[in-house]
């Protein structure tokens, strides 16, 4: 259960934050969807993976994240993907949409060699999001799952999410059996859709990201993805050119404040960072829109109305683009791997029978976002 705040805590924007963040007119607002607590007895007795139940360590504080040199394994990959699709032909591949999203069966991720993992990083960068069915990831010791994910980059430790006891690097998404917190949410909001790229406020946000299901409602709780490289390609050359060179502020302050407001924790001081509005993928060279309504606040150097107009247009474009979206349905044993640099996603809280939904995310960080020059 989330610890209660013992005193009033506020999150303030430090002097070191980008100047435009200190204005009171931040665009957008962080949408908090995670329930603040769960029934410990019900969950410990009923969860399929009780050792993955969230704990919130209010005592341990983590220092600011230091920059590190990221190695992009997708650059090293054999693009014929011999380890993913061996000549024996046992792997079953089914593309979910033409531009993005693939479903793979009969391939065990945990048995991939280093070369296979390089191919995985590249394949996911190309297909944006890949659902691997029938995986044993959830049954591995947590150390082994982390060891696997650590190949792709330094583990991100989330500042406010729950984690399995002793494993702060695992980000948990959990809504316990009987949970009714969504009622309160929908009393104030019309939809649970909250498009975002994970923790984009970090200086080096995640790249190849793993999310695996532990327990799920019978129906519902799918995850939506948007292909942000294809979303960029849909823009006119003139508009694309205008976006190049722009930078936007991404803030973790509102998420931290939301955690404190519901009695949760903030394990690391919140940060804000400035990233290019269009980023280039280091392995594929593709360009992608890199602003999202959960964490992006404004475009540096523009007046508020100008910044809001461009961001609103881009958010609307990303949300409307069902012709570059992928909807992933979870099955027992599914591991979804996405490239956080060229996608956005949203959970859906659309089931009302109070069944449990429980997932674990392994979140290797990647390079600091950069853009390469516009080429018309
Ligand atoms: Fe997310």
Automatic annotation (TrEMBL):
<dbReference type="InterPro" id="IPR003819">
    <property type="entry name" value="TauD/TfdA-like"/>
</dbReference>
<dbReference type="InterPro" id="IPR042098">
    <property type="entry name" value="TauD-like_sf"/>
</dbReference>
<keyword id="KW-0479">Metal-binding</keyword>
<dbReference type="InterPro" id="IPR051323">
    <property type="entry name" value="AtsK-like"/>
</dbReference>
<feature type="region of interest" description="Disordered">
    <location>
        <begin position="1"/>
        <end position="25"/>
    </location>
</feature>
<feature type="domain" description="TauD/TfdA-like">
    <location>
        <begin position="94"/>
        <end position="363"/>
    </location>
</feature>
<protein>
    <submittedName>
        <fullName>TfdA family Taurine catabolism dioxygenase TauD</fullName>
    </submittedName>
</protein>
<keyword id="KW-0560">Oxidoreductase</keyword>
<keyword id="KW-0223">Dioxygenase</keyword>
<dbReference type="GO" id="GO:0046872">
    <property type="term" value="F:metal ion binding"/>
</dbReference>
<comment type="similarity">
    <text>Belongs to the TfdA dioxygenase family.</text>
</comment>
<keyword id="KW-0408">Iron</keyword>
<dbReference type="GO" id="GO:0005737">
    <property type="term" value="C:cytoplasm"/>
</dbReference>
<feature type="compositionally biased region" description="Low complexity">
    <location>
        <begin position="1"/>
        <end position="18"/>
    </location>
</feature>
<dbReference type="GO" id="GO:0016706">
    <property type="term" value="F:2-oxoglutarate-dependent dioxygenase activity"/>
</dbReference>
<dbReference type="Pfam" id="PF02668">
    <property type="entry name" value="TauD"/>
</dbReference>
């Amino acid at each position: 259960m989330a610890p209660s705040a013992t005193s009033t805590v506020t999150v303030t924007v430090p002097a070191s934050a980008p100047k435009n963040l200190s204005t009171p007119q931040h665009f957008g607002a962080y949408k908090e969807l995670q329930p603040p607590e769960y029934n410990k007895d019900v969950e410990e007795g009923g969860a399929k993976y009780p050792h993955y139940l969230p704990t919130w360590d209010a005592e341990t504080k983590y220092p600011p994240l230091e920059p590190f040199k990221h190695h992009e394994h997708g650059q090293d990959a054999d693009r014929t993907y011999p380890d993913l699709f061996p000549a024996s032909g046992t792997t079953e591949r089914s593309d979910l949409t033409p531009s993005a999203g693939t479903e793979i069966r009969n391939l065990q991720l945990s048995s991939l060699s280093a070369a296979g993992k390089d191919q995985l990083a590249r394949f996911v960068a190309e297909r944006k999001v890949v659902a691997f069915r029938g995986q044993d990831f959830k049954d591995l010791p947590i150390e082994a799952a982390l060891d696997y994910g650590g190949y792709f980059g330094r583990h991100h430790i989330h500042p406010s999410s729950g984690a399995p006891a002793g494993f702060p690097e695992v980000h948990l998404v959990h809504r316990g059996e009987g949970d009714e917190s969504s009622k309160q949410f929908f009393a104030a909001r019309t939809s649970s859709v909250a498009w975002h790229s994970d923790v984009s406020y970090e200086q080096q946000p995640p790249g190849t990201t793993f999310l695996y299901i532990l327990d799920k409602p019978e129906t519902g709780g799918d995850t939506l993805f948007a292909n942000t490289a294809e979303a960029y390609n849909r823009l006119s050359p003139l508009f694309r050119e205008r976006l190049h060179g722009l930078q936007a502020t991404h803030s973790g302050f509102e998420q931290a404040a939301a955690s404190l407001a519901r009695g949760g924790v903030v394990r690391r001081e919140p940060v804000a960072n400035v990233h290019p509005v269009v980023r280039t993928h280091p392995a594929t060279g593709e360009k992608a829109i890199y602003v999202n309504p959960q964490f992006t606040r404004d475009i540096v150097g523009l007046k508020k109305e100008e910044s809001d107009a461009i961001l609103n247009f881009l958010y609307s474009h990303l949300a409307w683009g069902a012709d570059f979206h992928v909807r992933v349905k979870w099955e027992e044993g599914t591991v979804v791997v996405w490239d956080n640099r060229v996608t956005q996603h949203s959970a859906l809280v659309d089931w009302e029978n109070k069944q449990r939904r429980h997932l674990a995310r392994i979140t290797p960080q990647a390079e600091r976002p950069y853009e390469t020059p516009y080429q018309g």
